Amino acid sequence: MNSANDPHGHQSPTRETGRVPASLGAGETTRRPTRRTVFVGLSGGALAGILAACGQTGNQAGTSAAPQASAPAGNVTWMYSANPQSTGFDRIEAAFREKYPKINLEVLHTPKDYDSQLLAAFSAGTPPDVLRLNDDYILGYKTKNLIAPLDAYVKTNKVRAAEFYDAIYNFPVYDGKPYSWFLGANPRLIYYNVELFKRNGAPLPPKKWEKNGWTFDDFVDVAKRLSRLTGPQKVWGASVYDDTGNEQTFSINHGSPTGIYSKDGRKFTLADPPGYEAIQWIADLTHKYHVQPTRQEASELKGTDDMFINEQLAMRFSSTGFINRLRRDSSFLTWDVVPTPMKAKRMMEGSIQTYALAVGAKNPDNGWRLLHFFTEAESARIFIDNGYVIPARKQFAKDYIEHNRGKPPENIELVIESFNYQTSPNQTLDTQAARRIYRGNNINEIWDGKVTAKEGLQRVRAQVEEAIAPK
Predict the structure, then answer these.
(1) CA distance linking residue 82 with residue 353, whole number of Å
(2) Domain residues of the chain, as ranges?
(3) Which fold has domain 36-186+352-392?
(4) Which regions of the chain are under pLDDT 70?
(5) pTM
(6) Residues forming beta bridges with residue 336, ordered by sequence position
(7) Where are the beta strands (DSSP E) in 68-227?
(8) Which helix (H) or strand (E) is 315 found in, with range?
């Protein structure tokens, strides 16, 4: 945050050593208005080293807390960057206030420079109670003692892991303790234009996560049949490189045992075969097979989202976040979703929407109430209705499918089925720094065909591994 003071009316923290949190139940039914704060314009100063300087003292949220009355009261702050309307967070706010009318919920909406302002808030000693945390940064924040374990709250509230999809629930668990909570996830799939397939006599891809078939070679062959690069309107068969989930998804599917990073988070295994071979296969879709637009061509045509909608792209690798855009802007298209292609196995990286409780939170009990509320029925109904994320609890799967029945994609069950085929990058101590090194201009040179994937990834291996090494 941009101030070392506490302008938000937080209560003083309470701590009762050796006590577990009281049961956190619902409140009354009247509403209490709060104000919304927007955080922008962090003043200058290098942020390098902020994480290392952010060890917190005081109330260790999530390990012990004072008992609460049956109608919880007090304050809670929630920091995130996404658009409140498109995510449904504005409705989540209202629903939380209705359920807990005596809790003053303050939203710290931070649409610009979110990560920098979050780290600055920790550095100043004024972290928000609940914070949006990139799902790849959990280990780094946990190791720096910035986010609190939630095991005491989970135990007190009798939350059962079996209620959730394994790949989501176990993702933030270290040493048997969850260090983040979640809204749900956005699986990644292949979107395809059904009419373009039929028009070109291309066989339709399988609609289930089969153990065989729908290989990398099949994908290329179909993309060739769909590509029309002459005439008044060009059509490319596929686009894969423009969603960064391709790194983990296709390296695993190509046979890498760990994907981007080794299991211990210390090695940059994307720079090993078959990791770099998978990245090369993606680049070859452009420069060898000529079925994928170059970055310049995609930019001139306003990006692969618009290209798919304008029938200039037959297949696109993307997350379920693309569904809302297609429903809004492409009612004239017939499109569907299918699994990712494979060589050794068939998996996909789904983005898990994670939120955490800060170490040093002034309102840890209410922070947990908000986190837990994200996975309760009121929030699930909102997320199902607006399509921002697929809820994490298994019990809402049927509701999600029924709500979407009769709307594209026809193969909506695949979205739920894909949770059983989730792969996630292994965590490192500084994934942010690693990405700054190997992505950007470095990986763009691979996509542009200026260097091979082996050259581009191996030339930065030492830098990446230095960035993620224990300090």
Answers:
(1) 11
(2) 36-186+352-392, 189-349+422-468
(3) D-Maltodextrin-Binding Protein; domain 2 (3.40.190)
(4) 1-69
(5) 0.86
(6) 192
(7) 74-80, 103-109, 130-133, 173-174, 177-178, 181-186, 188-193
(8) strand 315-319
